[in-house]
Specification:
Distance between the termini of chain A: 7 Å
Order of helices and strands of chain B: EEHEHEHEHH
Number of strands of chain A: 14
Low-confidence stretches of chain A: none
CATH topology of chain A: Metallo-beta-lactamase, Chain A
Mean pLDDT of chain B: 93
Strand content of chain A: 15-25%
CATH class of chain A: Alpha Beta
CATH superfamily of chain A: Ribonuclease Z/Hydroxyacylglutathione hydrolase-like
Shape of chain A: globular
Largest interface: A-B, 23 and 19 residues
Low-confidence stretches of chain B: none
Radius of gyration of chain A: 20 Å
CATH superfamily of chain B: STAS domain
Structural class of chain A: alpha/beta
Helix content of chain A: 25-40%
CATH architecture of chain A: 4-Layer Sandwich
Strand order of the largest sheet of chain B: 1-2-3-4-5
Shape of chain B: globular
Oligomer: heterodimer
CATH architecture of chain B: 2-Layer Sandwich
Largest sheet of chain A: 7 strands, mixed
Number of domains of chain B: 1
Helix content of chain B: 40-55%
Strand content of chain B: 15-25%
Strand order of the largest sheet of chain A: 6-5-4-3-2-1-14
Largest sheet of chain B: 5 strands, mixed
Radius of gyration of chain B: 13 Å
Number of helices of chain A: 9
Order of helices and strands of chain A: EHHHEEHEEHEEEEEHEHHEHEE
Distance between the termini of chain B: 29 Å
CATH topology of chain B: Transcription Regulator spoIIAA
Number of strands of chain B: 5
């Protein structure tokens, strides 16, 4: 595995930066530049880069889609949220429509925000492309076909020219797919979800989203610690604050930054990436959660090596 | 885990000692159970003196959440007091100040919850 690339990082539904949000960023940038001069474009870009994410960028708003770059010709994706559309456009721009590609897609579960991008995934409309969709659910194919059906979408699934296959994976064993060792774990979420552990070349990446943790059950923590053990990167559902996750949003199927840090610390993971951001959170709120999570890691680290904490954004790349 | 409690008029002040982590959150839950399940008649609330707790994990916070729900169902109050700096930060990051009332000292908690308990506290302190 070479790197992980995020195409969609938002939970529940896609969101867009509003005009008011853009205006706030421009005002903040201009305020910071008051009285300064920039002799070159490079100096200007350096200033912009110094402003930090909430001012100079945005975490983005596509629903979940994560690419694992393996170094092979085949593409590997986790989930088919709205982020799969820009991924598809990029893949076609890279290869051209006349060069068939293979896409391996691992679905965490079948809720809408994790499959909604597929009807607009352009590679599915190109003959010769081969798309294999893997998951632990028995209803994989049914869920994908249903969202293409009238009156929800104008192009029926049966009309897609690409070769599309569905493969149900047994959570009880490891699978060798696209040069990766792939393991699944059942997670607590309405209708079930599955976490994935991808391993190759001595590296391990965890994709664990839409997963609520039973804090009254130590065995639940032990299962996840074993699954996360020694991972280089843990992509983790940190949608809610801990308090929300165990009170008003209990049984909503999501987790918190605090539980993410605790599990990664116990598992000896190297990097925790906060994922499945709450759609009502603006960039400032996500940045605040990131800063607090880093502080939580720092004050609870003890004698352990530091855990790197990041927050996923659309377009982010994490080298492995 | 080490745990003690005392009644001050109509308030119970409980003092857990040590980290409340995944290994011993269950111990705190068991220690609190008698107070939560069969409080003495007339009990108005519970104050947890956290001055000797240097860490609390998510499982520990969940125990406090359950305690808060049980006490509120009985129309009783729950407060935490005298948080160590690390535990105070954990409460802030977890947004736990929405769950329990947080006070800088046991005295200030009693002052808000029960004049009778405050008077008993002041008497003890002399």
């Amino acid at each position: 595995m070479k790197c992980v690339r995020f195409w969609g990082t938002r939970g529940s539904l896609p969101v867009a930066l509003t005009a008011a949000g853009v205006r706030r960023k421009i005002i903040a940038a201009l305020r910071g530049a008051a009285g300064r001069s920039f002799a070159s474009d490079e100096a200007l870009e350096a200033y912009v880069d110094s402003l930090g994410m909430p001012v100079s960028g945005t975490y983005g708003g596509h629903s979940p889609c994560v690419e694992i770059e393996t170094g092979r010709d085949e593409y590997v994706l986790c989930d088919l949220g709205s982020g799969v559309r820009p991924f598809g456009q990029k893949a076609i721009a890279r290869h051209g429509p006349g060069a068939p590609q293979a896409y391996h897609v691992f679905l965490s579960h079948l809720h809408w925000d994790h499959i909604m991008g597929f009807p607009l995934f352009t590679p599915a409309y190109i003959p010769g492309n081969r798309i294999r969709i893997y998951g632990g659910h028995t209803a994989l194919e049914e869920a994908l076909r249903r969202q293409h059906a009238a009156p929800s979408f104008p192009v029926d699934f049966s009309a897609l020219p690409a070769t599309i296959e569905f493969v149900r994976l047994d959570p009880g064993r490891a699978h060798d797919i696209a040069g990766l060792r792939v393991e699944l774990m059942l997670q607590r979420h309405s209708g079930d979800s599955y976490g994935y552990r991808f391993s190759s070349d001595g590296k391990a990446v965890i994709y664990s989203t839409d997963s609520e943790h039973a804090l009254d059950d130590p065995d639940d923590a032990h299962r996840f610690v074993a699954f996360f053990r020694g991972a280089d990167l843990v992509i983790f559902d940190a949608m809610y604050s801990l308090t929300d996750a165990i009170s008003v949003k209990q049984d909503w199927g999501h987790s918190s930054n605090i539980v993410g840090v605790e599990l990664c610390q116990m598992a000896g993971a190297r990097q925790l990436c906060l994922f499945h951001h709450e759609p009502v959170h603006g960039d400032e709120a996500i940045e605040r959660v990131l800063a607090e999570t880093r502080r939580f890691e720092e004050i609870t680290r003890g004698d352990r090596p530091a855990l790197l904490v990041t927050a996923a954004y659309d377009g982010m790349e994490i080298p492995l | 885990m080490d745990f003690s409690s005392r009644s001050l008029a109509d308030v119970v002040v409980a003092v857990p000692v040590g980290p409340i982590d995944h290994a011993n959150a269950q111990g705190l839950q068991e220690a609190l159970a008698p107070l939560l399940n069969s409080p003495a008649p007339g009990t108005a609330g519970l104050v947890l003196d956290l001055s000797r707790v240097d860490y609390i994990s998510s499982m520990g916070l969940r125990v406090l959440m359950v305690a808060a729900k049980q006490l509120r169902a009985r129309s009783m109050r729950i407060a935490v007091a005298a948080l160590t700096p690390v535990v105070k930060e954990i409460f802030d990051i977890a947004r736990f100040n929405h769950v329990t009332e947080v006070f800088p000292t046991v005295r200030s908690a009693l002052e808000r919850i029960s004049p009778a308990a405050l008077a008993a506290f002041e008497t003890d302190a002399r």
